[in-house]
Amino acid sequence: MTIAKQDRVVRTLEEANKDKKMTRKVDTYEYESLETCIKSEQVPPSEIAELFTDKAFYKWYSNRNFV
Q1: What is the largest CA-CA distance in the chain?
Q2: What is the predicted pLDDT for the residue at 18?
Q3: Distance (Å, rounded) from C-alpha 6 to C-alpha 21?
Q4: Among 29, 36, 37, 44, which residue's CB has the most CB atoms within a 10 Å radius?
Q5: In angstroms, what is the C-alpha Rg of the chain?
Q6: Half-sphere exposure (CA, 13 Å, Cβ side) for 30?
Q7: pTM for this structure?
Q8: Please, what is the average pLDDT of the chain?
């Protein structure tokens, strides 16, 4: 998958899951490593969707990647 396509997939997952109830809390020390894994397609879309239910991680990731 190209980087542009991966970015679109992640952005779509972000928008679709930002208002859902949190099902997984991401520790702040994991933020950067998860960001790297997401960008390098090591995290499946279903898990990305779950990660984005954590509002703090969602906001952090969004500010760094979609502004």
Answers
A1: 30
A2: 64
A3: 24
A4: 37
A5: 11
A6: 12
A7: 0.72
A8: 81
Amino acid identity, residue 52? Answer: F
Residues 52, 1: Cα–Cα separation, whole Å: 21
- Separation CA 60–CA 58 (nearest Å): 6
Q: DSSP letter string over 2-58? A: -HHHHHHHHHHHHHHHTTSPP--PPPGGGHHHHHHHHHTT-S-HHHHHHHTTSHHHH
Question: Amino acid letter at 42?
Answer: Q
Q: pLDDT tens digits for 21-39?
A: 767 789 999 999 999 999 8
**Separation CA 62–CA 52 (nearest Å):** 10
Q: With the C-alpha atoms ordered 6, 12, 15, 19, is the resulting torsion angle positive or negative?
A: negative
